[in-house]
Amino acid sequence: MLSEDAYSQLEEALGPENVSREPAVLDGYAWQAFTELVGMRDGWTPFRPAAVVLPGNTGEVQAVVRICNRHGLQFKAMCVGWGVWNMVGGENVVQIDLRRMDRILEIDEKNMYAVVEPFAICAQLQAEALKRGLNCHIIGGGSGTSPLASATSLVGYGWSGLTTSYSGRNLLGTEWVLPDGELLRIGTPGSGLDWFSGDGPGPSLRGVARGYCGACGGMGVFTKCALKLFPWSGPTQPEVDGLLLDIQTEVPQNHGFYICVFRDLESFAEATYRIGDAEIGYMHCKNSIGALLAAMAPRLMKKVVNSTALKAALTVQRHMFQVLIAANSPGEFAYQRRVLKQIISETGGILLDLGSAPPLLSMFWWGFVRAAMPPLIFRLGGSFGTSFGGLESWDHPVLQSKVAADLKRRFIEEGEMIDDLADNAWGGIYEGSTCFGHQEELYLYDPRSPEQMKSAEEYMAATFEATVEHNLGPGLGFALGSINAELFGPIIFNYQNWVRRMKETFDSGDVSDAAFYISLDPKKTVREAMERQPVMSRFLSRRLKELEEEDEIEK
Ligand SMILES: Cc1cc2nc3c(=O)[nH]c(=O)nc-3n(C[C@H](O)[C@H](O)[C@H](O)COP(=O)(O)OP(=O)(O)OC[C@H]3O[C@@H](n4cnc5c(N)ncnc54)[C@H](O)[C@@H]3O)c2cc1C
């Protein structure tokens, strides 16, 4: 329960206009996308926040965190708040909505980084960066998301990873309100210097702060961070008309967009390696034929899947990726295009140059540069989920995509999962020639259909068995909340124990709500998850037994 005393202290610290416990306001935070991941099939999360607060600066965030510590409350930070991982994990949690902290504090052109507050969104940062001949990384969730949230707290895959990497690798100096309210600046700002490095002096804390996929609000609140920016050869202020599929704009002379299609997965993989080796391209990403049709022509897609011949004709084109070339000069553009053509020809692929279809070129070019397309994924079914997606050297994600498509096909054939031609892997390679990459398997469903929701849950459960069977790594399992570490930790060097130790060291009282990070009471968490999601019981009961045995040994 939130006491009157605690509530008035929050009001005093932030001003009454920035604190609310109005039920209708709280419900706005308790309704989330993808609640089936926590066993709720109606869009409501299991809990309502005890209150919502809107701090305006770091000092106010610290004040909220300290009030929570004093009054036995928990807190949970959020930025744009797109997804169930923003939900509060219990009854006594104060939701910290960071929307008032929305400034870009600095853009250092020479050293190519920007310092941002939590709610400065990607669209905002990109508009300012482009003016300076720079660009930022935007996750596949789109330009409405917070680059700070992705860099500090959650995954960070995106279309342009070939050039702009993934969010976790772009994090430089960071300001962090720890779970007890103390302020820590990691990297160079911690030594009173600029923001250009996220490490040192001494051991880096970036691994503790976010690790592979972030703590989802379970380790305090990040209030500022510096993010890498990357060279941009396109227009500094693009003139764009229309939205989504109607986008019209002038594509620069030295930019080109190509769809590359292969006869099999091996040549798809080989062509990708060669693109990395040749160090060409601005963006490399697989958007499958099923994904493109589902997004662009959902009604047609529904008809196509009922025609065996049409379906077969489209399915053979499933091994495809898209490449954007963004060169600095006509000479460089000609060179990159020539190399791409040669690679596709040598690997037996087909190359479609969208330069021959200007309206499509315009739509794809800005759609991908701006990451404007994500809302389209909701068109066919109403919702979607994602699975697998471990970040590994390229052969591994390619294997993941094969295992995933084979598994998903079974669910589609059973009739309760939307047919997207099964192979709907999304992702590409990162950081130029290094050739690590990711492929996450998307699946589409109608959240209003109980059968489809059930099938989506069962598919998720089946992905764990496949992951273990094929050694595919934890991927995007963060979406399951803190049971993720209990499921995958024991087969990956018991990493759950290390994460738990970090959490205990920084937050022994569990004040920073870790429902999507790590549980300090794993047996309770596993039991609750089994109750809410019986379909997961077949793995979770094994884990529960292990935890009980560990307890016995300790005694
Ligand atoms: C359609 C769609 C597509 C998506 N595609 C991608 C994708 O391609 N790549 C990808 O990485 N993700 C993707 N996501 C997942 C996710 O929405 C994003 O990674 C991320 O959440 C976007 O930023 P946000 O501002 O919405 O963050 P939020 O959703 O607000 O926050 C993300 C998490 O971080 C925590 N958090 C936020 N801010 C702070 C802070 N300042 N301090 C501490 N914790 C904080 C929150 O509690 C939450 O758990 C997608 C989601 C949707 C709905």
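^ flavin-adenine dinucleotide complex. The two ends are 34 Å apart (CA to CA). The mean pLDDT is 95.
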